Amino acid sequence: MTAVDLCSREADVMLAPARTAHEGSRFLPQSMDRRFDHYVQLMQTDGGPECKDHFRTHVCNYCARYRIARPYKKNEQASIESFNRTLRKECVGWGKYHQEEITALTLVVEAFLEWYRGQLPRQYSRRVGFPTGWRSLPWP
Fold first, then answer.
1. 74 and 2 in contact (C-beta within 8 Å)?
2. Collapsed DSSP state (helix, strand, coil) of residue 9
3. Which of 9, 54, 96, 128 has the fewest Cβ atoms within 10 angstroms?
4. Rg of the Cα trace of the chain?
5. DSSP 35-82
6. Which H/E stretch holds residue 121?
7. b (16+ CB within 10 A) / e for 7-38
8. What's the burial of 3, exposed, middle or buried (CB within 10 Å: 0-12/13-18/19+)?
9. Whole-angstrom Cα distance, residue 39 to residue 62?
10. Distance between CA 140 and CA 105 in Å, rounded?
11. What are phi and psi of 13, to 5 degrees?
12. In Å, how far are 4, 51, 60, 76, 135 from 110, measured between CA atoms?
């Protein structure tokens, strides 16, 4: 699951074995506490299964307005899709991963997020590629 602040380009990622409402409800407080100062004015989701039930009952604790993106309107989710493409291209690759790899892959994604956060102030001047040292992280 991915969250992106449209103004600051701050991002948070949580890897989960499935896209369920339970995983979505775990991701909401985690990302809001870690990256987004506990509260935002507007939160938009794609309306997927991870944004139902328990997630929907607690989303009002973290935002003033909640909006579900309209289907088939590609520009409404463009920033998330762009970040996911960057994450795949520069960090985890395009393969499929198994549930037992989530713990090791989470370490790699967290290292990437720290690097990405350091790139934000200079993202409009010169983008430096993700350092190759990240491959030395433990990987099964």
1. no
2. coil
3. 96
4. 15
5. TSTT-EEEEEE---GGGSTHHHHHGGGTEEEEEEPPTT-GGGGHHHHH
6. none
7. eeebbbbbbbeeebbebbbbbbeebbeebbee
8. buried
9. 5
10. 9
11. -135, 140
12. 15, 23, 27, 26, 13
Helices (H), the chain: 21-34, 54-58, 78-87, 102-119
Q: Is 139 helix (H, G, I), strand (E, B) or coil?
A: coil
- pLDDT (tens digit, 9 = 90+) per residue, 74-116? 788 888 888 889 899 888 888 888 889 999 999 999 999 988 8
The encoded tokens of residue 32 equal: 């809001």
Q: What is the pLDDT of residues 55-68, one digit of tens each?
A: 888 888 999 999 98
Token output for 86: 């960057």
For residues 23 and 1, the answer to whether their CB atoms sit within 8 Å is yes
**Euclidean distance between CA atoms 55 and 81, whole angstroms:** 21
Structure tokens at 133: 């040292």
User: By C-alpha distance, which of 66, 16, 14 is closest to 40?
Assistant: 66
* pTM of the predicted protein model: 0.75
Residue 31: phi, psi to the nearest 5?
Answer: -70, -35
| Identity at 3, one-letter amino acid code | A
